[in-house]
Amino acid sequence: MADIHTPPSGPTVRTAYGNLAGEVAGGIVRYLGIPYAAPPVRFAMPTAPASWPELRRANEPGDCAPQVIKDFPGLDVVPLVGKGGIGGRDYLKLNVWAPVAAGPHPVMVFIHGGGFVIGSKDAPIQDGSAFTASGVVCVSMNYRLGIDGFLPVPGAPTNLGLHDILFALHWVQDNIAAFGGDPANVTLFGESAGAMATADLVTSPLARGLFRRAIIQSGHGAMVRDIGVAQRLVRKLAKILRVAPDAAGFAGMTDEAAMQAIEAVSKPTARIDLRDAEGREPVFGISRFIPVHGDEVLPLPPLEALKRGAGKDIDVLIGSNADEMNLYFVPTGVRAKLKGFIGKLMARWIIGKSHPDAGAVLAAYGLGRKGVSVGDAFTRALTDLVFRWPARQYAAAHQGKCWMYELDWRSPACGGELGACHGMELPFVFKTLPLATGAAGLAGENPPAELAERVHALWVGFARDGSLPWRPYDVTTRQVFQLDRGEAISEPVMPAAAHLPE
After folding, report:
1. Known catalytic residue: 192?
2. Is the separation of the CB atoms in 315 and 466 below 8 Å?
3. Could you give the CA distance from residue 85 to residue 69 in angstroms, rounded to a whole number?
4. I want to staple 22 with a disulfide (CB 3.0 to 4.6 A). Which of 4, 10, 71, 132 is the partner?
């Protein structure tokens, strides 16, 4: 818990719930672990935090949402997702990095990734100091994950994790001016699951007026489920936990039991069918826990809402990395092991769990052609199906201004095979490359600091006034700015386009 008795070492600000003291270093004031909501009550909507009568030192980040972080072959993932932990319940908090200089400054609010089951506002690679050094008030938040945040349990509100994010955005509107931020100039940005949440909230009627720009990093709006389909997961988890499949049944579970159940249903071999009526599973097995549509947060699937004009007043920057799925299949050795006849069967089985015509998908990516390995066809197909083409579909559906980027710089990690994998843009965006450098670092040895300067500057310029040095995306020219190359290209239609819903 934050120490409210020790004399402060930095500036103080007045929020709606009490006074906070920050810590100053290098022209940046850092405030950690600010409660934007009360400790969450399972399956209840977020509520306001208790006020504090004395000056509170905001120098401790506090808990993260309950989660278990496992080792990843050959890579240090702690800088990317944090250390995890189980036990703390007072975790609906946020961090603020603010310039010492008086505002108003543009505001950037970051939503962390982690498949809606792991991740934290305190992951080191997402430190907001560089943004603040560039004249931005930067905010990052925790939100409910897994069963507590994204399981549509009968008798409980749906999309509670998104409700938490919305609650934090209201906190920003009410309080960020005290930190020198401009509440009329807020950019919401996120990576992976955080990007999915950002993409969804662009279309949400509950988010109107809470932000004017959005940056969607390796995410889009297609990873949502119908509530009825998602409730198959409710019944599966209830069976594992031996509880009734409703809010009363789940209410008494411990965090430890919840983590064990999440691990059980997350295994590739878990017997759970989350395909829709057309035989499609929009997440391709990456996570069982995603937002649902058909409630007050997302009345419509986000792409349908975009086509009807939802979010048209929000400027959007959306993009992907050239080799997204390498993160999952290169360090684990899966890509290398998929070869020969058995490899073809395995590739078809894996994709077939999420797509009704796996054979046609793999053929479209060269399987069967001379010089194309099973592992390469499989990985490239999933990269486009899961991330790259759905991001282009989102850009095409958005009725307002929308720009598209792609990270084309390829990491030398994993013997030069990791490439521009999922998460690779983060240390460039946040200018935290040293945390991703080294033998076990995502960016390998000697990543280009100059690229970090350029990418970071693009994000800051967009947040400041919506400016970017290339034309918005349209379906005719398909302008995509390649970050390493430093220029926009007219991108061809991907083979995945013929194998995904329009």
Report:
1. yes
2. yes
3. 8
4. 10
Per annotation, catalytic residue among 134, 192, 320, 354 = 192
Q: Where in the chain is CATH 3.40.50.1820?
A: 12-227+287-318, 321-499
Confirm whether 422 is a catalytic residue.
Answer: yes
Q: How far is the C-alpha of 64 from the C-alpha of 118, rounded, in Å?
A: 9
Choice among 220, 293, 355, 422 that is catalytic: 422
- String of DSSP letters for 425-464: THHHHTT-GGGGBSTTSTTBSS--HHHHHHHHHHHHHHHH
Polymer length in residues for the chain: 502
With CA atoms as reference, report the closest residue to 478 among 465, 467, 492, 468. Answer: 492
**321-499 fold:** Rossmann fold (3.40.50)
CB 281 within 8 A of CB 302: no
CATH 2.40.128.590 fits 12-227+287-318, yes or no: no
- What is the DSSP track for 204-272? -GGGTTS-SEEEEES--S---EEHHHHHHHHHHHHHHHTS-SSHHHHHT--HHHHHHHHHHHHSTT---
Is 324 catalytic? The answer is yes
User: Which of 170, 150, 146 is closest to 160 using CA atoms?
Assistant: 150
Assign residue 415 a region: left if phi > 0, alpha if psi is -120 to 50, beta otherwise? left
Task: Choose, from 281, 324, 406, 425, the residue flagged as catalytic.
Answer: 324
C-alpha gyration radius of the chain: 22
Digitized pLDDT (tens) for each residue of the chain, 502 residues in all? 444 444 456 789 999 999 999 999 888 999 999 999 999 999 999 999 999 999 999 999 999 999 999 988 989 999 999 999 987 889 999 999 999 988 899 999 999 999 999 999 999 999 999 999 999 999 999 999 999 999 999 999 999 999 999 999 999 999 999 999 999 999 999 999 999 999 999 999 999 999 999 999 999 999 999 999 999 999 999 999 999 999 999 999 999 999 999 999 999 888 999 999 999 999 999 999 999 999 999 999 999 999 999 999 999 999 999 999 999 999 999 999 999 999 999 999 999 999 999 999 999 999 989 989 999 999 999 999 999 999 999 999 999 999 999 999 999 999 999 999 999 999 999 999 999 999 999 999 999 999 999 999 999 999 999 999 999 999 999 999 999 999 999 999 999 999 999 8
